Each structure stands twice: as structure tokens, then as C-alpha cells.
């Protein structure tokens, strides 16, 4: 890696600002992710959490500031280029291809044949099948490969979308409320899944469930009104009076 | 998926049988049943099927509604017409003109030499390249301008319609260069071969059928590759496709250009079969009619689009012969009916009502389950399930 100013950070967000018609949804935000770190972003509604993920993955363009990922400046890249740089993004509501089977969903995300001609020439070879099956195993969907994704439960769709990220082999995974709407058992399984994932990925998660946050987070960033309110271990932010006042207090 | 494995096996599959049935209809039944005049009219309808097949890919699969396919149809048609017109305008044949050797309408408009962009159309090879190349180039420019800026949906439809209007106005206004509102008429021979005889018309009909199948198989190939799945996925979840690492705009441009190429070939055949080309086949009304052919046949079904083009045009001819003033109302009613009652068109009706019957017949005849899995679908033989069936690989 040809990192100079981001040193050994995988992701360095500095002075990031985005303003929608004068309203600053994210305001001069800076934070840094180490490789293999699990970082959870928490904060009240409207704090700008999802917008931060949107900015990193290119869905929203930053007004100013920089996002350096493994030595690359992401703010000028297009969405698919950011994906190829190694950033995967899961959306809050499960967004999988309902008309395709679980296998095809994963296959579409397999990192080969992403150009028009590549997609025309793409063949399902042993490497693809192996990668799909191994990811399907990880996301508990090994026995569902031939089912259309439309027939999966809500929780299974969430896992499938995580699987679609995993098969891209990204260095950074960004998950927006991965356990929202899940049953207690699904939650537990998802926590296990994240543990497995974090063995070789850096993960940035938005989550509200404090129990879940405590289970998975290395460090927590608390956001409020587009700014970082507090940052540190879960114990540290839980006992921070500012955090208690704006977020945990209610 | 499994098509390349064995073409014979594919022909025996259900999908293969549907293609065989269409081939039987177009190659055997209609030529035997119809006189050359009527067969020539069917040939004309089939040239619209090229556009409809392109619309299935572009609109049905990828969700890009173009109300300007007449533009590409017309460009292909005009390329062919320019070649034929130059061939018909030899100095001997046009000796009575004040400038012999140029097309008659140019002479009437006081032009004294052939415009530069007409020159290359002396070459048949150039014409063949241009009748696909010109529509594709225009589609590429429109696609680059629209899709990279993420213009889509209704806005895109309106813009394509505006382009159809602009091209019509341009052609009508530049009478000396284009033949104006009359179009390019009085076409006689293709490389010395008289295209006005019954034999020539019958042969052209078969060429048209052959090329239509080539076009169907091209579309089918694209749709069965991963590219086809990306198009469908893009239609439903554009953002997820983008964040799976695909450049969505490139895929949209590709499918739009593909549809334009099909339309261009159809237009060129139209000129050959009908014997002239005019702006009335390009404009807004013509372009919308093309969408109706596709919608009525079934916008998700390649074969459905062919039947749609055939049936609507046959009905149009039938009505226009007896009650010409009623036809636009009937067509409007047809379109409303399709949208409200059966959004997947005739192909959708077929899947809902006829296919279950077919499956039962199959089962009764053979004790073992029917040999249909070669179509690569999981729900073969089971009743139609709209949830699954909509976007699954082509079949009807």
C-alpha cells in the first residue's frame, strides 16, 4: 500500500462536510479506522450516521473534506469504482434481487465480469460455485441456494445482502443497522456472523441496539448533529455525560 | 444457461418448441396460406417485430422506456432508401432532369449536386454498416448524455419522444436533402435486382424472417448470460447493482444501443419490403405504436413481442380497410386494456391460462415428468406464479 498521510489507518475521514441546501447533515467530521477494527457509530435519529456511510460509498457527494481509503481518495470516485477499491455497503432495508435465486444473487456480486463485455462472457465455473457455496455457508443459507430471494425471511435477506458484500472480498464492510427487525435468535446468529467476518475485515456498523453494540464493538463513535460527540470504548462513551444527555438519557 | 450444450435438446424443450412453432407459422403456414400481396404485408409487420424485440430487452427487461424507437427504425430505413434511390437515379434514368444523376426530389428542389452525406451511400457495404451503425451511434450519444447523468424513467421517455419529433421536423424541413414529407420514393432495384416483383417480395419476406430469428437468438443469448440478469436486477434494484460494483450507465447504454441496432435492421427491411421510406414511420405516433406492439405481445417475452407486432398490425390493416376512422380509438382502447387488465400482454395471458393446461396434457401423455428442465427453470410444469415468473429466463 502506498499510504503516505493516512499512515497505517485503513480509512481516514477528515473534515468531512455535506450540506443540503444550507443544512449541514455532516459537519466537519473526522475519524480513523485501523485495519481489522470493528467500529460502531451510534447516535440519535438525524445525527447523520447513514449520511456518513452514503458519503464513504459515494452515494452522496461531499461538499468538502476528504475520505482516504487505503491510500486512495474516495470523494472523487464513482460508486462502482469505490466498490472495486474495496468498500462494501449494506443498506438499512434489505436490498437483494428478489427475482433471482440466492445463488444468482451471490453470483452477481462475485467480483468478476463487471464490465458489459465481461458480463456477456461470464461463465459459471468451479471457482464461482466454490466461492458462492463458501459464502452461503457463512451466512447460513447453504440449503437455500436455489430459492428465489423473494421467498426468504427478513433476517435471511439481511444475511444474503451481507453475503453479497462478503463475496466481493472487500477490505471495509459498512453495515447500516444489520439487526434491525430481527428476532432474538436471528440477532444472536448475526452477532456470530459478524465475529467471523471481522477476523479478516474491517467493519463499520451503524446500530441502535446497545446490547448488540457492546457485544461487537472495538470502539464506538457517537454522533450528534453531524459531529462526533464522543469516541472510545463502549464503557467510555456510556459514561460520557454528554452522551448520556443527548442519547442514552432518554 | 444450458442452451449451448445441445441445440437439438433445446429444440425439444418447451422453449424450443415455442420457437419451432413460430418458425413453422412464418416459414410454412403463412407463405402457403397467403397470396404474395398479403405475404408482403406480413413481411412489413415483421419489420416492426424487430423494434418490438428490442423494446423487450430495453423496456421489459431493463426498464428503460423509449418512446423514440421510430427514430432508429427510420434511420435504418433511410440508410437503405438512400442507397436504393441512388441506384434508381442513374444519369440515363434521370435524363429529363435539369441535373441528371441526382435523385428526382433534389432536382425539384433546385439542388445541382449530390450532398456530401449522400455520397457514401453509393456503396452497398457502407450502407449495410450504416443501417446499423447510424442508429447505434445516435443511441450511444443519447445514452451517454442521459444515462451517465442518471436521467431515467419518465424524463427519458419524454426526451426520446422529443428526439422523434425533432428528427421528423428535420426531415420534413430539409426537403431537398431528404425528400421531405413524401419521403424517398420510387425505389426499384437492389444491386440490379428488381425488388418490385412478386418473387422478389417473397424472397425478401424470407430474408426478413431469417433476420428476425437471428435477432431473437441474439436477444435470447444476451438475456441468458449474466448480462441479462444484471439488466433485470438493475430494473428492480438499481442501487444494489451499483453497489455490487457495476457501472449501471454502461449497461443501460448497451441495451439501448442493442435495441437501436435491432430497430435499424427492421427499418432497412421495411424500406426493401414496402418500397419507400417516409417521415410518417419515424415520428411520435409511429414510435408509440411500436411500444404498443411490444406491450400487447408482452413486454417481458421476446416471442410475445413478435406476435404483438403481427396481430396489432394485422388488426390495423383490417380495420383501416373497412373503418379507417375508428382504428386510432380501437388501438387506444387496446393499450388501455393491456395496461389495466393484463400488464404482461398476450404472453402473460398465455402463461397464466394456457401453460397450466399444457402442463397437464404433457403429464397425461407421459407417465414420467415432462422433459422440460432443459429450459433451465425450476418451476416447470407447475402453475404460473406471478411472483417468480415475471423476470425469470425467457420462456413463452
TrEMBL record, chain A:
Molecular functions per Gene Ontology: ATP binding; ATP hydrolysis activity
Keyword Cytoplasm: no
InterPro entries membership: AAA+_ATPase, ABC_AA/LPS_Transport, ABC_transporter-like_ATP-bd, ABC_transptr_urea_ATP-bd_UrtD, BCA_ABC_TP_C, P-loop_NTPase
Gene Ontology CC annotation, any one: plasma membrane
Domain of life assignment: Bacteria
Keywords: ATP-binding, Nucleotide-binding, Transport
Keyword field contains Transport: yes
Domain ABC transporter: 11-250
PANTHER family: CONSERVED COMPONENT OF ABC TRANSPORTER FOR NATURAL AMINO ACIDS-RELATED, HIGH-AFFINITY BRANCHED-CHAIN AMINO ACID TRANSPORT ATP-BINDING PROTEIN
Protein name: Urea ABC transporter ATP-binding protein UrtD
Organism name: Marinobacter lutaoensis
Organism placement in taxonomy: Bacteria, Pseudomonadati, Pseudomonadota, Gammaproteobacteria, Pseudomonadales
UniProtKB/TrEMBL annotation, chain B:
UniProt keyword Transmembrane helix, yes or no: yes
Pfam families named in the record: BPD_transp_2
Segments for region (Disordered): 366-396
Membrane topology summary: Multi-pass membrane protein
InterPro entries, per the entry: ABC_transp_permease (IPR001851), ABC_transptr_urea_perm_UrtC (IPR017778), LivM-like (IPR043428)
One example GO MF annotation: branched-chain amino acid transmembrane transporter activity
Tagged with keyword rRNA processing: no
Main location: membrane
Regions that span the bilayer: 16-34, 46-68, 124-147, 154-173, 203-222, 243-263, 269-293, 300-320, 326-350
UniProt biased composition (Basic and acidic residues): 376-396
Gene Ontology CC annotations of this record: plasma membrane
UniProt-listed NCBIfam families: urea_trans_UrtC (TIGR03408)
PANTHER family according to UniProt: HIGH-AFFINITY BRANCHED-CHAIN AMINO ACID TRANSPORT SYSTEM PERMEASE, SLR1201 PROTEIN
The protein's name: Urea ABC transporter permease subunit UrtC
Amino acid at each position: 500500500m502506498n499510504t503516505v498521510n493516512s499512515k497505517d489507518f485503513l480509512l481516514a475521514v477528515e473534515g468531512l462536510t455535506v450540506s443540503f441546501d444550507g443544512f449541514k447533515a455532516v459537519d466537519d467530521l473526522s475519524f480513523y479506522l485501523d485495519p481489522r477494527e470493528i467500529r460502531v457509530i451510534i447516535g440519535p435519529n438525524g445525527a447523520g450516521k447513514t449520511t456518513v456511510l452514503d458519503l464513504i460509498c459515494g452515494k452522496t457527494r461531499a461538499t468538502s473534506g476528504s475520505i482516504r481509503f487505503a491510500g486512495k481518495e474516495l470523494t472523487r470516485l464513482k460508486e462502482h469504482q469505490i466498490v472495486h477499491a474495496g468498500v462494501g455497503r449494506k443498506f438499512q432495508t434489505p436490498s437483494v434481487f428478489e427475482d433471482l435465486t440466492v445463488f444468482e444473487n451471490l453470483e452477481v456480486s462475485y467480483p468478476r465480469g463487471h464490465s458489459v463485455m465481461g458480463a456477456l462472457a461470464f461463465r459459471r465455473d468451479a471457482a464461482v460455485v466454490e466461492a458462492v457455496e463458501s459464502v452461503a455457508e457463512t451466512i447460513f443459507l447453504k440449503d437455500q441456494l436455489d430459492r428465489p430471494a423473494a421467498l426468504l425471511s427478513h433476517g435471511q435477506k439481511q444475511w444474503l445482502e451481507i453475503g453479497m458484500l462478503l463475496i466481493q472480498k472487500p477490505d471495509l464492510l459498512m453495515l447500516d443497522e444489520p439487526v434491525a427487525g430481527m428476532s432474538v435468535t436471528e440477532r444472536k446468529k448475526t452477532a456470530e456472523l459478524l465475529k467471523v467476518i471481522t477476523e479478516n475485515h474491517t467493519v463499520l456498523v451503524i446500530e441502535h441496539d446497545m446490547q448488540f453494540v457492546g457485544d461487537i464493538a472495538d470502539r464506538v463513535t457517537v454522533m450528534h448533529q453531524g459531529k462526533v460527540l464522543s469516541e472510545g470504548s463502549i464503557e467510555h462513551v456510556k459514561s460520557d455525560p454528554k452522551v448520556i444527555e443527548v442519547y442514552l438519557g432518554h | 444457461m444450458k442452451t449451448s450444450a445441445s441445440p437439438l435438446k433445446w429444440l425439444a424443450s418447451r422453449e424450443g418448441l415455442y420457437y419451432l412453432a413460430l418458425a413453422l407459422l412464418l416459414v410454412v403456414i403463412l407463405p402457403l396460406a397467403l397470396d404474395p400481396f398479403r405475404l408482403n404485408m406480413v413481411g412489413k409487420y415483421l419489420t416492426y417485430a424487430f423494434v418490438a424485440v428490442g423494446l423487450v430487452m430495453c423496456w421489459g427487461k431493463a426498464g428503460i422506456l423509449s418512446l423514440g424507437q421510430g427514430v432508429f427504425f427510420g434511420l435504418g430505413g433511410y440508410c437503405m432508401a438512400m442507397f436504393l434511390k441512388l441506384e434508381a437515379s442513374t444519369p440515363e434514368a434521370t435524363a429529363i432532369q435539369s441535373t441528371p444523376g441526382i435523385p428526382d426530389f433534389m432536382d425539384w428542389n433546385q439542388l445541382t449536386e449530390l450532398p456530401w452525406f449522400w455520397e457514401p451511400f453509393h456503396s452497398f457495404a457502407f450502407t449495410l454498416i450504416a443501417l446499423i451503425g447510424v442508429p447505434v451511434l445516435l443511441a450511444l450519444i443519447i445514452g451517454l448524455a442521459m444515462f451517465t447523468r442518471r436521467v431515467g424513467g419518465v424524463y427519458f421517455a419524454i426526451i426520446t419522444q422529443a428526439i422523434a419529433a425533432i428528427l421528423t421536423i428535420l426531415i420534413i424541413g430539409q426537403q431537398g436533402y431528404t425528400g421531405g414529407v413524401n419521403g424517398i420514393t420510387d425505389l426499384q432495384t437492389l444491386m440490379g435486382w428488381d425488388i418490385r416483383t412478386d418473387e422478389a417480395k417473397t424472397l425478401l419476406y424470407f430474408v426478413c424472417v431469417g433476420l428476425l430469428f437471428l435477432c431473437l437468438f441474439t436477444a435470447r443469448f444476451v438475456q441468458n448470460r449474466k448480462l441479462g440478469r444484471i439488466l433485470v436486477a438493475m430494473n428492480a434494484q438499481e442501487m444494489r447493482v451499483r453497489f455490487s460494483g457495476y457501472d449501471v450507465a454502461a449497461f443501460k447504454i448497451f441495451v439501448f444501443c442493442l435495441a437501436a441496432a435491432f430497430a435499424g435492421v427492421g427499418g432497412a427491411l421495411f424500406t426493401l419490403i414496402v418500397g419507400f421510406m417516409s417521415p410518417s414511420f419515424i415520428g411520435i405516433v409511429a414510435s408509440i405504436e411500436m411500444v404498443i406492439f411490444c406491450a400487447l405481445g408482452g413486454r417481458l417475452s421476446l416471442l410475445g413481442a413478435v406476435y404483438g407486432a403481427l396481430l396489432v398490425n394485422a388488426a390495423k390493416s383490417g380495420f383501416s380497410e373497412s373503418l379507417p376512422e375508428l382504428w386510432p380509438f380501437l388501438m387506444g382502447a387496446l393499450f388501455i386494456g393491456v395496461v389495466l387488465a393484463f400488464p404482461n400482454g398476450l404472453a402473460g395471458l398465455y402463461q397464466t391460462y394456457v401453460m397450466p393446461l399444457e402442463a397437464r396434457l404433457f403429464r397425461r401423455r407421459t407417465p414420467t415428468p415432462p422433459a422440460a428442465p432443459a429450459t433451465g427453470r425450476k418451476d416447470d410444469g407447475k402453475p404460473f406464479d406471478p411472483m417468480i415468473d415475471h423476470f425469470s429466463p425467457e420462456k413463452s
